[in-house]
Structure formats: C-alpha cells, structure tokens
Amino acid sequence: MNNDDDKDPCHSTRVGSILSLLAGAAKEAADQLGFFPSAGASARDALADLLGVLVAAMALSLWNRLHRSRPDSGHTRRVLPV
C-alpha cells in the first residue's frame, strides 16, 4: 500500500470536494423532505454549493502551486537510492 496519497494535496482536494458536494446534496434532500424550516430544495442552492466547491478547489490549487514554487519553503525532497 502506498502512503504517498496522504501527502498529495490534489487527493485531499478531491476528497474534500466530493464530501462537500455530498453534504450539500444531503442538505438539499433534507430541505425537500421538510427537516429544516425553509422553502425546500432549490436549483439556486445546489448551484451555489457547486460554485463554492469549485472556488475553494481552485483557491487550494493556487495556494499549493505558489507554496510549492517557493525555494525557501523548507520542504525537502526524498531521494531514493538507486
């Protein structure tokens, strides 16, 4: 089993995005079933959830690229013996 997935920021972003979309979908379903005092599920709320996830994923991607490109970030690369 490879533990490199734990350190991959893209993997974390994907998992977080999927969980966020699932939470938004569950909230919309609960709205439609009347569990929350609201007007019910709406396409506008679902679109706002999707847009929020996309903006957050793009911000994380940009942060990771900028953070990785700095030479003084203090990160070291592992060198495997050949």
From TrEMBL:
Spans through the membrane: 46-63
Keywords on record: Membrane, Transmembrane, Transmembrane helix
PANTHER family attached to this UniProt entry: PTHR35462, TRANSMEMBRANE PROTEIN
Protein name as it appears in the record: Uncharacterized protein
